[in-house]
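$ ./design --mode recover --in tokens.txt
reading tokens...
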């Protein structure tokens, strides 16, 4: 009888250790398994990773990777992001959510209508120049408020208050090319920013050496999908 009790305790203890180990390892017993993933090192691998995450988001099947204490500890001393995402400040276009990512995966640079000035350019350059980030994504989006406001100001010949007028000035070329069509203006502005970054003196050599790609994308607020423009 004593042997049976000891044996049962041993089995229960072992089961508890297995369950506890699963939880410590990311909660495998509850469908929360953390899988070790290799950091994308080429532009194409990085873009494929972003597309994969966006497909999950658009399908309502986000897995929210790299959003736990373990990941926080992993990147506390060193970061190795594999993409720079240049997007609008719009509250509906958060890159980490749109691409179903987590801590340490990307560098997010955000400005109204993803417009660029010297400080923003420096933030974008940091990833490729200092961290060997292989991909830059310029992400425009449907119904961009900044582009819509700029288009209206240009059409009416009015000025926006404060520094907002700078956005109007930067978007003037896209407005002329789009002939007033706001959605087309959003897409053209995105491709214009891509072209500007490709000509950047710090980025151009890395593009020539195939260490870096710059991709333009368009995000649909309606579907959650990102489509490639450039």
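writing sequence...
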């Amino acid at each position: 009888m004593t042997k049976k009790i000891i044996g049962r305790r041993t089995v229960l203890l072992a089961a508890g250790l297995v369950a506890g180990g699963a939880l410590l390892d990311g909660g495998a017993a509850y469908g929360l398994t953390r899988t070790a993933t290799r950091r994308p090192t080429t532009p194409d691998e990085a873009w494929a990773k972003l597309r994969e995450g966006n497909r999950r988001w658009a399908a309502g099947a986000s897995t929210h990777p790299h959003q736990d204490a373990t990941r926080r500890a992993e990147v506390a001393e060193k970061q190795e992001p594999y993409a720079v995402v240049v997007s609008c400040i719009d509250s509906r276009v958060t890159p980490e959510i749109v691409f179903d990512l987590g801590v340490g995966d990307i560098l997010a640079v955000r400005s109204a209508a993803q417009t660029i000035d010297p400080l923003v350019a420096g933030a974008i350059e940091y990833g490729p120049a200092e961290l060997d980030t292989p991909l830059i994504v310029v992400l425009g989006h449907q119904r961009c408020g900044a582009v819509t406001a700029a288009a209206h100001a240009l059409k009416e010949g009015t000025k926006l208050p404060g520094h907002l007028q700078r956005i109007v000035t930067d978007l003037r070329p896209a407005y002329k090319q789009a002939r007033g069509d706001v959605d087309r203006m959003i897409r053209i502005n995105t491709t214009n920013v891509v072209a500007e970054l490709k000509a950047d003196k710090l980025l151009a050599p890395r593009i020539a050496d195939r260490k870096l790609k710059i991709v333009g994308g368009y995000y649909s607020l309606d579907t959650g999908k990102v489509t490639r423009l450039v």
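exit 0
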